[in-house]
Design a protein that fits this description.
alpha/beta, Rossmann fold, 2 domains, 6-stranded mixed beta sheet, 3-stranded antiparallel beta sheet, 14 helices, about 45% helix, about 10% strand, binds guanosine-5'-triphosphate, binds magnesium ion
Amino acid sequence: MSDIPVFAVIGHPNEGKSSVVATLVENDAIRISARPGETVAAKAYPVSIDGREVIAFVDTPGFQNPVQTLGWMRKFSGPESEVLPAFLAEFADDPGMAHECELLTPVIAGAGIIYVLDASRPMRQVDKAEMEILRLTGRPRMAILNCKTGEEEFLDEWKAELRRHFNMVRVFNALRATFAERLRLLESLRALEQDWEGALGRVVDAFARDWKRRNAECAALTVDFLRRVLTMSESAPLAEDEDRAAKEAVLARRLEERIRAEEGRLHDQVCLQFRHDRRSFALPEQSVLREDLFSTTTWTVFGLGKTRLVAAAVAAGGAAGAALDLATLGHSLGLFAGVGGAAAGLAALFKGEGLVRGRLMGMGIGRRRVQVGPLGTVQWVYILLDRLLMHYWYVIHWSHAVRDKDFLPVPADGGKQGLTGTWDREARALCAEFFKTVRDGGTDRAMDLEEDLRRLLEGELDRMSRL
Ligand SMILES: Nc1nc2c(ncn2[C@@H]2O[C@H](COP(=O)(O)OP(=O)(O)OP(=O)(O)O)[C@@H](O)[C@H]2O)c(=O)[nH]1
Ligand SMILES: [Mg+2]
């Protein structure tokens, strides 16, 4: 037996044992299925933090023959401590008792017990037999009520019965458990057995520290990302006979593509921080995050109405002659500033299909270049942050037990307003100064602002984790 706390997750077939293990150990790959009897062998899943294993959960197959098992155990006349080894010796080769042998093996080795049951159904005789078997093992044990359908009609009946057999009873939904609920579950395991109190206290601390580290890492990655994106531009030589608008459109698309790719990478990295494989993580069907970053929908949903959009374009340098045709707002748009643009200084002029006017630079006689970018308004900071925060929210609520792509909770305070919409004036002032200063890059002030924004974001992620 290892010296870390080990808990065997035990119960009737198809009640959600593997789902509970997947959520607790953050493993997307554990087999979960609507078909009873999916798990056929006991398997231990250790949790590592900072390269050290701190706790393990053992997934086990569901009871096969609880009534017969209990009958045998009751008849056993030897010392109490021998009942389980004797059972294993007797039934090791009996296929009818294969699951019982599997699920009792970690218990004999010293594991505590987490009994999982679906409390949305009525109690039956076999349930009572299972509970009694677990009581007879004498091991520390907790019951987890996983209400699969949300039906709570039988909850009180279950609780009353469970209290007779278990040291602790908790409601825990494997598919919806947040970080805070997982932490509370671990905390309650501490009280199960005095010998484990110290070790489990360290596990709880390690979990909390690890989560904080992930949030800090996500905040740092985001600020790095913003710095890169805010300083990006595309330029190319423009021949005498070349159509400038067409060239700028090509450059704008190229720039948009680079920014999209950077954002995709950032979102992937956030998934990885929370041990999600990007391929198994899916956004809800109607999520605005499925919209293209450069679409009008993205702009409007994250709180930028037409008026503010025009104002943003103007503030970014668009002035006289900027033929902002509101009719074209329905098309995809790219709001870029041509830094230090030529005479008109049009920052964010677009026409129809996302055409972006860039900056024209003389490079000596007969040699000209056009440049598109960098991004021309602080609104981009808010949009990129809102999309990041919303993505984060989905990632931390995407339980590792979810196998059905359509299942996802709705963000609590996301929606129309966008998450930065709730930030105070100080935070907004920081974003504005960050935007202006970081675009110029490299200064001490820029570094200070990056640090301030990183801290602000980290606090925001910590706050969202506890919601
Ligand atoms: N709606 C809902 N479904 C759940 C919940 N927990 C588990 N399920 C579903 O119930 C089915 C069985 O879940 P598993 O975790 O595989 O159950 P198990 O106890 O490991 O099953 P066996 O290995 O067959 O004994 C799967 O389809 C899960 O998606 C829950 O909290 N809510
Ligand atoms: Mg299973």
